[in-house]
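Let us begin with a simple case.
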Amino acid sequence: MIGSLQRIFLTAIVFGCVLAADAATAHPHVWVTMRSELVYAPDGAVTGIRQAWTFDDLFSTYATQGIKQKKKGTFSREELAPLAEVNVTTLKDSGYFTRARADGKRTTFNEPIDYWLDYNQGALTLHFTLPFKAPVRARALMVEIYDPTWFVDFGFNDKNPVVLVGAPSQCKFTVQKPTGSTVTLGQVGEDFFNSLTSSGNWGAQFANKVSVQCP
């Protein structure tokens, strides 16, 4: 079954991409480097998560083929706007690959706002803010980012991967990066990954986690 991340990758084909044969024979297919900001209101509640997802060079090259550009070698925000719209719309099916719990209870999000794509040194970066449906006040907030089908591999940027914007001074956070799976593609085969869906939880072992503690 084709999941939402697969459809994002196929969106690149819609925009003039040709999928290389070797890219179709391994998992994952897309790599994303993230920077995340948890945005706080003056009263200390978390209002949303501001994301910057930088795609790997190969995906970025495919995704931008066929897009008209005024200046060779670069793309403006306006030129990339249709692709940004499609990507954000497609991400909705999977909950934007973001899960959050406040004091152990699942929280929900509204649709993204303030989204756009930029292009720098051959790489696309998708910027968007994911607002909580209601501001979150919690002693313990856990945010997890991962693709259940592991079609895409998410990883935090090594430098300043997470920032608390406007948070109370006593709030502290820790970042936990995934340790990876002991299961190899050779053991399970590509059909195994094709059978995974966004509603499953197999990819949770690759989750990037942010834990925020506020006394």
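The second case is a distinct protein. As before, the sequence precedes its structure tokens.
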Amino acid sequence: MIFRDRRDAGEQLAARLSFLKDEPDLYVLGIPRGGVVVAAEIARALNAPLDVFIAHKIGAPFNPELAIGALTESGQVLFYQDLIDHLGFSAVEVTRAVDSHRLEISRRQATFRQDRPPLEVAGKKIVLVDDGVATGSTVLVSLRALRKQAPARLILAIPVGPADTLAQLARECDKAVVLSTPEPFWAVGRFYASFAQTSDEEVIALLNAAQRCGRTRPL
């Protein structure tokens, strides 16, 4: 075990990101759901606005836990084509899987953003946060989608993940802040004492709390 819970991971990352405290045009984006809990602690410590960047892994047909790619709210799609070909999934099956995740992303946008539009990333300093990575597909496609929007600086903050995956992700951003790369690496949850699933209601409460403190974008 490395972290007590996601809040502990966020506090530890915030200490490593203290050089950004009170920076103008800085936004902390959490990948829902669990990444928002980590991001909320970072945003609080840095006195920065909190927002979400919605991305979702694309599960394989008949095995949703097996990632064959990832999709973001901006429409960016990443496929592991070699895996898709190896498993013999048809184009129709893959399209159905993508469409189902588009619906989930739309639901999360309506649930978490309510009337707020997506953040205008261009020219901003962005800290992208998740609660850990395994394959890294969701974070990778998120970084690429954000990079296309021309941020002034793109920083990745991750509590834990495998060294090879994080080395790949570090090449997709301006700076990667990572707390631990344990070997051997198991599932992300193995490195938390408490890793209960984060609910939609918890994400909404964190965003609302940040808004009350003036740390979300105005409606």
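Strands lie at 26-30, 50-52, 55-60, 63-72, 77-79, 125-129, 153-160, 175-180. The CA atoms of residues 68 and 83 lie 7 Å apart.
Keep these points in mind for the review questions at the end of the chapter.
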